[in-house]
């Protein structure tokens, strides 16, 4: 996962087993193409991986995203449930599973391309989410392709606005430039740090690249007039 942005920070997140952590975003299949041309399919997606990791560490965790009813979707569903993750939207969508094509070079570095239009990850709509689904969440993690694909992006933005002020919200700005058709529009309408964000979480790095949409390896501290953010200092909590 790329650097995460803590955009709301209460004094301390509830660490009790009863506290729910909600992870929102995409679950997809990574189609890996080796430098020899061998192709293999693997469950993936940043939020999908985070949800499974959180659940395995012990806290209650729910995944907020859409899964297809096709074979790949069933595989993703099984992986989440096997890890102990609760599905906020258990019903499958007839849209095919979202795919990420990762072509590996001789050094194992991946060049990503995405099959997004009309696929499962973007199908999350407000009507799919029952009222109060985030009321028990002490922390919400979102990001990745969920910030890009509609109607999911608008759905997550609306849910974030309605989140309780005491909720810790972490944003993973791991968005792939090739998944963004209009970079200027994405930067103009991307997730902004809410006004109630703690001052302890206001140390940021601005991406100076004209091609990168979100994440940056830079650690230069800056106050964001435009562009994108990454976290450059751990919160005190």
Describe, in plain words, how this protein is organized in 3D:
With 237 residues, the chain is of the alpha/beta class. The chain has a single domain (5-177), classed as 3-Layer(aba) Sandwich (UDP-N-acetylmuramoyl-L-alanine:D-glutamate ligase), CATH 3.40.1190. The chain is built from four helices and twelve strands. The chain has helices spanning 46-57, 71-82, 152-162, 183-189, and strands at 5-8, 20-24, 28-33, 39-44, 60-64, 86-87, 99-104, 110-115, 137-143, 168-172, 204-206, 229-231. A six-stranded mixed beta sheet has the order 1-10-9-2-5-6, covered by helices on one side. The two termini are 21 Å apart. The model is unreliable at 1-17 and 193-237 (pLDDT under 50).
General form: globular
CATH topology, by name, is UDP-N-acetylmuramoyl-L-alanine:D-glutamate ligase
CATH structural class: Alpha Beta
Number of helices: 4
Question: Structural class of the helices, strands and pairings?
Answer: alpha/beta
Q: Largest sheet, if any?
A: 6 strands, mixed
The fraction of residues assigned to DSSP E strands is 15-25%
Number of domains: 1
* Widest sheet, order of strands: 1-10-9-2-5-6
Residues in helix, %: 10-25%
Query: What is the terminal-to-terminal distance?
Result: 21 Å
Q: If you average the pLDDT, what whole number results? A: 75
**Uncertain stretches:** 1-17, 193-237
The rounded Rg comes to: 17 Å
> How many beta strands in the DSSP annotation?
12
């Amino acid at each position: 996962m790329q650097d995460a942005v803590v955009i709301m920070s209460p004094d301390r997140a509830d660490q009790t087993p009863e506290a729910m952590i909600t992870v929102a975003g995409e679950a997809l299949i990574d189609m890996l193409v080796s430098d020899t041309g061998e192709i293999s399919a693997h469950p993936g997606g940043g939020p999908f991986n985070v949800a499974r990791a959180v659940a395995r560490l012990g806290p209650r965790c729910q995944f907020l995203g859409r899964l297809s009813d096709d074979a790949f979707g069933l595989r993703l569903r099984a992986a989440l449930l096997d890890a102990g993750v609760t599905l906020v939207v258990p019903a499958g969508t007839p849209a095919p599973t979202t795919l990420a094509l990762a072509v590996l070079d001789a050094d194992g570095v991946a060049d990503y391309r995405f099959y997004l239009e009309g696929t499962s990850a973007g199908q999350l709509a407000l009507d799919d989410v029952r009222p109060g689904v985030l009321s028990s969440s002490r922390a919400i993690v979102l990001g990745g392709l969920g910030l890009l694909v509609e109607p999911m992006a608008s759905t997550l933005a609306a849910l974030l606005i309605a989140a309780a002020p005491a909720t810790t919200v972490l944003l993973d700005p791991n968005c792939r430039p090739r998944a963004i058709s209009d970079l200027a529009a994405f930067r103009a309408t991307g997730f902004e740090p809410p006004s109630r964000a703690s001052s302890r979480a206001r140390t940021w790095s601005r991406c100076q690249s004209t091609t990168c949409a979100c994440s940056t390896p830079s650690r230069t501290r800056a106050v964001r007039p435009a562009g994108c953010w990454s976290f450059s200092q751990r919160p005190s909590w």
